[in-house]
Amino acid sequence: MTYRINKFLPILVLFGLLSCEKEKIPSDIIFTEKCDLYDRTKILKNMHGTLHFTDSLPTGPLPEPIFIIFTTSQGLLPITVCNMPREFQMAEGESRGITFSGRIEVLPDNVDAGSVPMELDYLKFE
User: Domain of life, per the record (predicted)?
Assistant: First the structure.
């Protein structure tokens, strides 16, 4: 009997360790809406940036304030958030440090753009 327990104990311990899932830090905002992005998208995970609520981009003024993320990642345009819940609010001109994940649209090389849309699925304020 002892032999059987000793034989299966390592297997049980292994299954126990594999079934323990790392605790994921929950998002500060629940994103339920989806965006109408083009077919070419890229998944970004655990990116760092600054969320702004502003009515202007480096390329010029906008007709109304939008949520936009600026990152320090090379090659990324400013990111416009296309699925921010209506109940989330920030003062115009306010900015906050964030960690975020989601699906970003990959624009064709021949497109001249000042920003790129992103469908967020995770956002944590720093």
Answer: Bacteria
Angstrom distance (rounded) from CA 45 to CA 82: 17
- Say which DSSP state 123 is in: E
Q: Are the CB atoms for 89 and 42 separated by under 8 Å?
A: no
Is residue 115 within 8 Å of residue 67, measured between CB atoms?
Answer: no
Question: Which of 110 and 57 is assigned the larger pLDDT?
Answer: 110
The answer to whether the beta carbons of residues 79 and 116 sit under 8 Å apart is yes
Q: How far apart are CA 38 and CA 77, in angstroms?
A: 17
Amino acid at 75: G
Supply the pTM of this predicted model: 0.78
What DSSP string describes 65-119? EEEEEEE--TTPPPEEES---TT----TT-EEEEEEEEEEE---TT---S-EEEE
